[in-house]
Design goal:
With 267 residues, the protein is mainly alpha-helical. The chain is built from 10 helices and 2 strands. The protein has 2 domains: 105 residues, no CATH class; 135 residues, no CATH class. The protein is 76% helix and 3% strand. The mean pLDDT is 81.
């Protein structure tokens, strides 16, 4: 990587980490507001990655519940209305997809994309309210993703031989995935024990499920980009790409891990 590009990437990354850290430190309403902006950015970029772009009435039907959901990040009392609007949109899309037409496929892809662009960040914003001002659990989620990404890259460079998903993301290797996963598990255990202390053993168990789903979200977004021949989802972060490029690890990991632990608590 050339020096100017590395400098641009480093500055952009520092700005991102600074904004995220400040929003976590100050908590609501700053972190929910930041998550709402991220969700809208991810949704905008997702629409740009669709082979067929929504137009006319469909575009309005997608943006209205999307904006309602984003507003609910800051005003929890309207959240259930936004969730029902999104679910209704997803059901309509699924029913239309049974017709197997281009229009119905667009409905389905748009509805599912809207749900997965909004839901993870809405759940993270809810956690910031639920934790009573503590930023540590939220920061742990981001640290697990960053540690996994960094160590997977290092492990892939040093040990990578077998491709993890060659047709989607040729740069990822099985060995890199293993190194990243193990590193995130170890970091979750160490940080949970020395930093969070209470119920520290839950964090490596959480990372055991969270990290593979984070990688799956990354691969899913890589598939969307490769399908339309794009390298980055956007240009909001020079040297890094767009919102989806930075937050794709959360698209599947947050809602699915959250849902699994919720089910386990009920069992």
């Amino acid at each position: 990587m050339a020096a100017p590009e590395l400098l641009k990437r480093s500055i952009s990354g520092l700005v991102y980490v600074g904004i995220l850290s400040a929003s976590l430190w100050f908590g609501p309403p700053y972190f929910p507001l930041f998550m709402a902006l991220v969700a809208i950015g991810c949704w905008w970029e997702y629409l740009g990655l669709l082979p067929q772009k929504p137009k006319g009435a469909l575009r309005w039907l997608l943006w209205l519940p999307g904006l309602l959901f984003a507003i609910s990040f800051l005003f929890p009392w309207i959240a259930h209305k936004a969730v029902w609007a999104l679910l209704l949109l997803a059901v309509i899309g699924f029913l239309m997809a049974l017709g197997k037409s281009k229009s119905s496929e667009l409905w389905l892809e748009s509805g599912v994309g809207l749900l997965f662009s909004m839901l993870p960040f809405w759940l993270l914003s809810r956690l910031s309210f639920a934790e009573g001002g503590s930023f540590k659990p939220l920061l742990m989620l981001f640290l697990m993703v960053w540690i996994n990404d960094t160590m997977a890259y290092v492990g892939g460079k040093l040990l990578g031989k077998r491709k993890l998903a060659p047709s989607i993301s040729p740069g990822k290797s099985v060995e890199g995935f293993a190194v990243g996963w193990i590193s995130a598990l170890a970091a979750a255990a160490a940080l949970g024990y020395f930093w969070l202390e209470a119920d520290w053993y839950r964090w490596p168990l959480f990372a055991l499920i969270f990290v593979p789903l984070a990688v799956a979200g990354d691969l899913f977004q890589s598939f969307l980009k490769r399908r339309v021949g794009k390298k980055d989802s956007g240009r909001i972060m020079p040297g890094h790409g767009g919102f989806l490029d930075r937050f794709d690890s959360f698209l599947l990991a947050v809602p699915l891990t959250w849902g699994l632990f919720w089910v386990l608590q009920l069992a």
